[in-house]
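All the exercises in this workshop are built on plain-text protein records. Instead of coordinates, the fold is spelled out as a row of discrete tokens. Once this layout is familiar, the rest of the handout is easier to follow. The record below serves as our worked example for the rest of this section.
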Amino acid sequence: MRRSTRASSTASRLVRGWRLTASVGGTIVVGCVLVALFAPLIAPHDPIEIFSGQLRKPPSLRFLMGTDEVGRDILSRVMYGARVSLRVGLISVGIAAACGSALGLVAGYVGGWTDALVMRLVDIMLAFPGILLAIAIVAVLGPGIDNVMIAVGIEAIPVYVRTVRASTLSVKHNEFVLAAHAIGTPAGGIIWRHILPNVAAPIIVLATLGVGIAILTSAGLSFIGLGAQPPTPEWGSMLATGRTYVRDAPWIAAFPGLAIVIVVLGLNLLGDALREALDPRMRGFEG
């Protein structure tokens, strides 16, 4: 009886924990999305407007986050930078999730030489560190935010392929899939209507966590000059510029860096909460 009560109490704390995590993470993500959507309305200044005589001014009532090395308002640039970073994160994850999930579903369901070929290609991609693979792709395609989205998306494909393939292998032997195959349902219909809905949970979790990783990767590429080009307000490029003045004007690098930390933290908290919420064992605890 004591063990049962103790287990129930532990389960209740776990459920309360992931709900709190979801609330905090969701609030941060929603706030960032709202800032990105309404940046033209709420930003105090144009992000590329230069105020003469206001170079590297510290935070004040006029410029709440100070000004940068050429006299632009950092708060406005951080707000507009949220639009760039979220767009990069979402499109990159969309590319990775769509391509990786499709390959994982086909490899797991068809098997045989198709599975072997897909997984060997994945192994080749995994042989390179992710950031180096992204740098190589951008070096071939050329610097620019659009090419960064493609590079980050391609770099993340192997994670989705392996995860979806593993889930597909466990689902395709279930009775409802075998029954659909027995009545002559085409392979495409089985994958789309029966397997994909049952492997969607890990895809959702990976995608949520992947947006944060994509934002970090794109910021890293911009930091070394391969991403967004001046005067585009992008957090990574703002960090790269601010490092030159980190002693005399630390706010130039501090605020875009803080924005990256907060957004990635929110996405990670939300992803962790989704992972726990979509876990059947956690749903059992909640009931």
